[in-house]
Specification:
- This protein has 7 helices and no strands.
- By secondary structure, the chain is mainly α.
- The chain is globular.
């Protein structure tokens, strides 16, 4: 198994668990409290990440990009907490927000001049359709 596939499957496993733990968290505490505890939980990994980091290769622009990624990730996480606290089912909200790669692809087209194949456009259409079907409640 290629290393990238193993890492991708481990990410899938972790994010699957996250969807459940997010809902369990906001069942008892506010989105604000949940984001604090989740952020502190991620800080537990800082020593391991710090030991592997290569800071000499980091240019200022990329440090800012990393900070922006962290900021928007935590803000998005707060929004999903607020969504679930406001009554969303985890089985609906989590899959809906999991279609974020479609937005990433559209942003990559706009800002990075990337081009998508017909198969990739079909994937976007199917993901959006699947999201709509999963979030439908009679």
């Amino acid at each position: 198994m290629p290393a990238w596939l193993a890492f991708s499957l481990l990410a899938l496993l972790c994010w699957g668990i996250v969807g459940l733990t997010q809902k369990l968290t906001v069942n008892r505490i506010s989105p604000d409290g949940a984001i604090i505890w989740c952020t502190l939980g991620s800080w537990l990994l800082l020593p391991w990440f710090y030991s592997r980091a290569q800071f000499s290769k980091a240019a200022g622009l990329y440090i800012l990009a990393g900070l922006a990624a962290g900021f928007t990730a935590r803000l998005g996480e707060w929004f999903i907490f607020a969504s679930m606290k406001s009554g969303a089912k985890a089985s609906v909200a989590v899959p809906l927000t999991a279609t974020y790669p479609c937005l990433t692809l559209l942003l990559a087209i706009t800002f990075l001049a990337e081009r998508l194949t017909a198969v990739q456009w079909t994937g976007i259409a199917l993901a959006i359709t699947a999201s709509a079907l999963m979030s439908y409640e009679p």
